[in-house]
Amino acid sequence: MDQGIGPTIGERITQLRKAAGLSQSALAAAAGVSPDLIRKLEQGRRHTLSIASLHAIARALDVDAGEILPKRPVTSSAPPSTRARAGAVALRKAVTTVDDLIGEDPDVEPLTLAAARAAVDFGWASYWAGRMHDELPQQLPMAITQVRATLRTVQSDEVPLAHDLAAEIYQLAACTLVHLGYVDSAHSALREALALAAQGTDELRPYALRSSMAWLLLNQGRFIESHKVATAAAAGVAPSGDSPMAEWTLYGSLLLSGATAAARAQDRPTAGVLLDEAAEAATRTGWRDDYQLAFGPEQVLMQTVDVDVVTENYTRALDTADRMPASTRLPLAARARHLADTALAHTRLGRYEAATSALMRIRETAPDWLRGQRQTQQIVRELRDQAASQPRLLELAKHTGLLK
After folding, report:
1. CATH class of the 1-71 domain in this structure
2. Are 355 and 379 in contact (CB under 8 A)?
3. pTM (2 decimals)?
4. What's the confidence (pLDDT) of residue 394?
5. Which residues pair with 288 in a beta bridge?
6. Computed over its alpha carbons, how large is the radius of gyration of the chain?
7. Rounded distance, CA 68 to CA 47, Å?
8. Interval 265-316: pLDDT, tens
9. How many CA atoms lie within 13 A of 133 on its CB side?
10. Which of its termini does the chain have fewer beta carbons within 10 Å around, N or C?
11. Most confident region among 52-61, 96-105, 359-368 by mean pLDDT
12. Helices 332-348 and 352-365: angle between axes, nearest 10 degrees
């Protein structure tokens, strides 16, 4: 039995369903899922859900998907530090400042443009290394405050470049806040980033920000809006044969975002078309990381696996995953996400040992990323039901916060 945690997914669905006055059959019908799924969840016989089903049930219950997922406990094995909690609070405050409304300027030294560039680059390196749950929330608030000071003091001919850098650091803050679960604050940060980018020199930055916005909407379960934002931005980039590679990177990344959103809306045909177009772009670009958007054939493979997992075609997902090069250039956080998708596919097919091995690889290579992921916690729950005595599963349960 799990210790030190709140209601399970099934218990939470039962509570919300009864509060809404719905029977299991009525909830299943409203969500467009099978009554058997609702029954198994509430009986504790199944602990994992596809992302699409999770959001469908949440919409039927008129709650955010996060209201259904179990809350992560404070455990002795993975306690969120006081500094980490304080950093998250400070980051939310930094991106929703009212200093300009009350006439207060924080007493901080502005950064030179070179120092601001270095701060942004260091932040992105931390982000892609999976350190968005502890390190970044502590670093970003001061960096944001300093960059705002730079905007107030920079020479007039450098103002546009300063706005470019400010837009990028707000984008980094927004992405970090999504991982921390503060999507409303992330939305504010991205809106501020878009306003800053409009005063900068980089014509492609607004499209990169729209890619982040599409991802944020995806995390909110707003799949149709996410798809529209991504595909409209892709149409705005619309590279031609002689366009710079950065434009092709943005275009391909936006197509992948649109495909992911379409899949979560259970529109597999549209997702397939967008994946094919992205694959064509990837053959042109090869591996690129323009605008902090990892893109290339390997990223297309990763997102194809994600689409198949989301649409519950687990055998095809694993067949595609087998094509991923062993020495992939995907960033660490992306590799961890890919392994989590394969773990879920193995779990759904009853391949529990393979699923455990995939999670252990994440545990070895990206422990910080693993600790903050609800999807992996759900997978571990189901695996423990099948083979609770395995030492490796007990270790994973402790690491992900399911055991004290």
Report:
1. mainly alpha
2. yes
3. 0.77
4. 65
5. 295
6. 22
7. 12
8. 989 999 999 999 999 999 999 999 999 888 999 999 999 999 999 999 999 9
9. 15
10. N
11. 359-368
12. 160
The tokens describing 64, both together, are 């955010």
| Closest to 11 in 3D by CA, of 74, 70, 51 | 70
What confidence score (pLDDT) does residue 11 get? Answer: 86
Residue 329's pLDDT band (cuts 50, 70, 90): confident
Cβ–Cβ < 8 Å for 256, 278 = yes
Q: How far apart are CA 132 and CA 143, in angstroms?
A: 15
Q: How far apart are CA 139 and CA 88, in angstroms?
A: 10
Distance CA 152, CA 124 (A): 24
CA of 135: how far to CAs of 26, 142, 314, in Å?
Answer: 45, 13, 35
Reference 107, options 145, 153, 144, 138; nearest CA is 145
Residue 107 has pLDDT above 80, yes or no: no
Identify the DSSP state of 65. G
Q: What is the DSSP letter of 11?
A: H
> Residues in the chain, how many?
404
Block residue for tokens 């695996």: 383
pLDDT at 324 over 70: yes
Q: Parse the chain into domains and list their residue ranges.
A: 1-71, 75-202, 221-325, 331-404
Residue in the structure block whose two tokens are 């530090």: 81
Dump pLDDT digits (tens) for 117-129.
988 988 898 888 8
Which of 144-148, 210-214, 392-396 is the least confident region?
Answer: 392-396
The closest of 97, 31, 25, 20 to 58, measured between CA atoms, is 31
In this prediction, residues 350-374 reach a mean pLDDT of 83
Q: Range with the lowest mean pLDDT among 59-63, 75-79, 279-283, 337-341?
A: 75-79
CA-to-CA separations, 99 to 90, 94, 105, in angstroms, rounded: 14, 10, 6
- Check: CB of residue 266 under 8 Å from CB of residue 272: no
Buried b (16+ CB within 10 A) or exposed e, 64-83: ebeebbbebbebeebebeee
Residues in Cβ contact with 251 at an 8 Å cutoff, skipping those fewer than 6 apart = 234, 237, 238, 239, 281
